[in-house]
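Why does residue order matter? Because the sequence determines the fold. Keep that principle in mind as you read this record.
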Amino acid sequence: MMRILGIDPGLRHMGWGIIEADGPRLRHVANGVCNSSGDDLSLRLLSLFDQLTKVIATHLPDTAAVEQTFVNKDGAGTLKLGQARGIAMLAPARAGLSVGEYAPNSVKKTVVGVGHADKGQVAHMVRVQLPGVQIAGPDAADALAIAICHAHHGGANANSGLAAAVARARA
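Structure:
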C-alpha cells in the first residue's frame, strides 16, 4: 500500500490531497487547502511551506506529486506560480519523499478521460473514484486528482528527482 500526497500549487491557495493506493484500489485519507498569509511574497511562501510541512508530518505520505506549471500570458503571474510550485516540490523533498510531476492535461486525461476537462468534471470524477469524500474546495479536488494520476502512473522513482538531490546534498 502506498500513501500519496497530491499538491495543486498556488500562491494564495495550495490544494493538497492524500490517498492510499493498494493496487487498483484507492482510498481517501485527507484533503485541504493551505492559504498563504502575509503581505510580503517571502512570508507568503514561508507560510505555505510551514503548512505543507505540517500536512506531511501529520499524514506521513510515502510519495508526492505536483502539477506542472503552465505558462500563461501574464509573465509575472507565471513566475509567482512557479515560486509556489517550488515550495510544493521542496516541502516533500525535504521530508525525503520522491516527487512526481504531471502536466494538467495528463491529470485530467487520467482522472476524467479527457485532457481538456473543466474543474467541475474533475471534482465529479474524484468523487466517483473516492466514494464518500468530502472535498475542501476546487484546489483540494485538483490535488486529489493529481494524487490519483500519480497512483495510476505507478508512483515516482524514489532514486530520482528533487528528493534524491536533497538526499545527496545532505550526505
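The CA atoms of residues 111 and 148 lie 7 Å apart.
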